[in-house]
Amino acid sequence: MFNKNIHTRIKIILLIIIICFILIIGKVFYIQVIDYNKLNNLANNLWSRNLIIGANRGRILTSDNVVVADNLTTVSLVVIPNQIKNKDDVVKDLARILNVDESKISEHVNKKSSVEIIHPEGRQLSFEIADQINELNYDGVYLLKEGKRFYPFDTMLSHSIGYVGIDNQGLSGLELKYDKYLTGKSGAIKYFSDAKGNKLDKSSVYVEPTNGMDLYLTVNYNIQASVERELNNAMQKYNADGAWAIVMNPNNGEILAISSKPDFSPTNYKDYSIETINRNHAIWATYEPGSTFKIITLAASVEEKTVDLLKDTFYDGGSVNVEGARIKCWKHGGHGAQTYLQVVQNSCNPGFVSLGQKLGKERLFKYINNFGFGKKTGIDLNGESNGILFNLDKVGPVELATTAFGQGISVSAIQQITAVSAAINGGTLYKPYIVKRIAEPNTGEIILENKPEIVRKVISNKSSNTVRMTLETVVAYGTGRNAYIEGYRVGGKTGTAQKVRNGVYLSGNYILSFIGFLPADNPQAVVYVAIDNPKGVTQYGGTVSAPIAKNIMIDIIDELNLEPSDYTLEKTYNWYDTKYAIIPNVIGENIDEVKKELKKFTINYSGTGNIIKAISPTPGTYLPENGTIKILLSN
Q1: Domain of 602: which CATH number?
Q2: Of residues 76, 259, 291, 545, which has the active-site annotation?
Q3: CA-to-CA distance for 403 and 367, rounded, in angstroms?
Q4: pTM of the model as a whole
Q5: 603 lies in which domain range?
Q6: Average pLDDT score, the chain
Q7: Interstrand relation of 525-532 and 611-616 (parallel, antiparallel or unpaired)
């Protein structure tokens, strides 16, 4: 009986051992086969280390492939504390080379971490400093490649492009808005180390970084350069508080140039106030538009057929009384009897009050809203403002009158140029945009592409033709004469808007603007220029802003290869205007027979004989009267 019990116990113990053995085998099998990958990865993570290699940020290019935001290759300093043998020497030498206090380096070198980036002292080092560190040849001290943002044209497009932080993260402008596309994927040098951080003999693995996507803008480099030059000159010449300009293709909403002054250097953004950096006046600033807004009242009046510009007349005695409020014309004594076409040419405020009254508040404000005022245009830039309009139920006779000539409301430059583009392009309102496409840098594969987006049809083609014709006469005969370009059809409108602060109009403080387009019969570019509080000059948009816009449009003619027009309106000159004449083609003619044709110019002769062999400048060029031409004579 006793032996039988022992045998039973032995069998039970043996069975337990067998079961345990089976469980152990099963567990080993599970670990080695089923759970191998997971556990292997966990084990690798315990001894693997990564030295991060930064990826280059995507470039930003203009429509004509000029790079306006690029990358420089720099290096950054990384230490692995457990691999450093003589920490005191490392601290002393690195502090000397980096020109920082030893305590800052010591904090990194003695830190209990697997990998330590010397930040910010060791970030984006020059190659000269990197060579000095490399010559030390210390264990545990590494130099890794890192990209640094580089803006080759410094302040150009600064408000639109924005800037990046030290970690190449977008902080403003397009750098921020399109950060997820511009940011690349970092690479690494992967190696294995023991628990003390010592590098094991297992081979290192190099993972190549992936650069970010390239951003192609709608901006034309040469037109942008022209805008930047003209605004910089205006800021210096007039000691202005600010200046901004936009150039747009009216037929699709593409921004050809955009600038706002004062600007900043994206590379040295820390040297500027946050207000300077963030205030892109071209899309952020809202202000009373003044007379450039009269284009909207004009377009609405033509579309609604409330006036015949050529036949209907208006008498301007210098002011008009609306519900007890006296609204003055800018010209003392007024313009007298005039057609409504002349009302537009003369920018007559009382005349536009009349146009507003003919429309009524419902129709006028319907067009103001349809042209996009009172809300954001949706341009792909950060910081756009809505502007301010009267609520229709609060619009009385006075508010209707002032709105009709651009006073009492608040709009932005981007709203104005977008609306005027619709008024002169055939009546179609487009959504403005500045990014043309996003492409993979190596293959050029398009990842995202912006295309023209129609918002709505605002006025008819016929009405738009009338608006273009009217604004062309403003430049030839009216307040916009300083934007006239000989040989080309130019339309436009001036604006002089008094600034408001704390609900009170400032004395002698205006925003002077001009909006123009060319060719007037088939517009390819619209230019808006605004100068804030210029000093030492008569403050009229036609005096200050129109000549600036003219200079930009002359550059646009060259850049877009616009041909001279077969027909142009002949400018009405004031006594102080510079008159131009075209150089006739008299090459091959006898000088004695063509002297009458050349009498408007000062002539410098060279050579002998009486036959004209060459002329400089070339025939067909417009030159100021009494300007000098050179003639080469030959037998």
Answers
A1: 3.30.10.20
A2: 291
A3: 12
A4: 0.81
A5: 580-634
A6: 87
A7: unpaired
